[in-house]
Amino acid sequence: MLLRRPPPITPEPGPNAKKIVSWNLLRRTGAAVDCLVTLIEQERPDLLLMQEATKEIAALKDRVGGVYAWAQLPGRIHGLAMWSPIPWAKPPEIVTLPPGVLIDRVCQVLDWGEFGVANVHLSHGQVLNRRQLRRIESHLPVRAAVLGDYNIVGPALLPGFRDVGPRRPTHAMVDVLPLRLDRCLVRGLVCHERMVLPRGLSDHHPIVVRLSPAPEGAASVGRLRGMAEAVGRLRRANVRGARARRDRPGSDGSAASPR
User: Fold this and answer.
1) How far apart are CA 240 and CA 235, in angstroms?
2) Between β-strands 93-96 and 106-111, what pairing exists: parallel, antiparallel or unpaired?
3) Where are the extended beta strands (E) located within 35-86?
4) Which H helix or E strand runs over 155?
5) For the chain, the helix, strand and coil percentages under 3-state DSSP, each to the nearest 5
6) Contact residues for 238 (Cβ-Cβ < 8 A; gap 6+)
7) Which of 104, 109, 134, 172 yields a CA-CA distance of 20 to 30 A from 96?
8) 18-24 and 47-54: which strand pairing?
9) How far apart are CA 165 and CA 49, in angstroms?
10) Do 187 and 91 meet the contact criterion of CB atoms below 8 Å apart?
């Protein structure tokens, strides 16, 4: 009889748990300040991360208070933004990422005390966006979360990190193909809650997670486990590819054809 390992028990969120909302606003034609005010009033996040935010979104601070930081993408009208009701010890760091063919990308990294948070809008290239993740990881503390629009299809393959975000699609390509582009990867953290919110005026759904630091020692264990899982996924992909090649008619190891 096959014995299944019981799922891990997630502890109840303590006073250090933080609620984070991430939303790709859809520059200019999507969600505006009024939408963000409504979102903040309904969800009461400890941190709001935004992608495709234009300079007009800075008016959010005048409407709801708190602190706001904007990182414009080079040569673009939009960029990344963060808002919090409580001031940060220091403003987010802007990290330059490996550039794409058309758009140069940056990332916001916030030192939030007990853990770091990276706000991302990665490139569409499926090799490039994973290279960008590895650049971001080098700027993060042991306990960290990476949230935003990944533009990734399939696993992110970031060693040491676990994908704890919602599993539902967050974007529909040309309103037809549902994709889970908006994600949350963590290292050394526990996720107590995750959900997808209504899309509103944007072409992306906001995602919500509630995170807290994992117990001492779990961060390093999680990093090793994440690396092992990534290696395992790559090995399984290689095995499937080898089987497909072997079973292809006329390939070595395939059934002999009648002569």
Assistant:
1) 9
2) antiparallel
3) 47-54, 67-72, 78-84
4) none
5) 25, 30, 45
6) none
7) 172
8) parallel
9) 14
10) no
Q: Coil, helix or strand for 242?
A: helix
Nearest in space to 168 (alpha carbons), one of 188, 144, 156, 184: 184
- For the beta sheet containing 93-96, the strands, ordered from the edge strand earlier in sequence to the opposite edge, are 93-96, 106-111, 116-121, 144-149, 182-187, 162-163
Contact 231, 169 (CB under 8 A): no
- Identify the residue whose tokens are 């001031």: 87
Residue closest to 171 by CA, chosen among 146, 148, 193: 148
pTM metric for this prediction: 0.81
Pick from 210, 252, 241: nearest CA to 10: 210
**CA-to-CA distance for 156 and 145, rounded, in angstroms?**
13
Look up residue 226 and give its amino acid.
G
End-to-end CA distance of the chain: 45
Write out pLDDT tens, residues 43-71. Answer: 999 999 999 999 999 999 999 999 999 99
Q: pLDDT (tens digit, 9 = 90+) per residue, 220-254?
A: 444 455 555 555 655 665 656 556 556 655 544 44
Q: Which of 54, 48, 89 is nearest to 71 (CA)?
A: 54
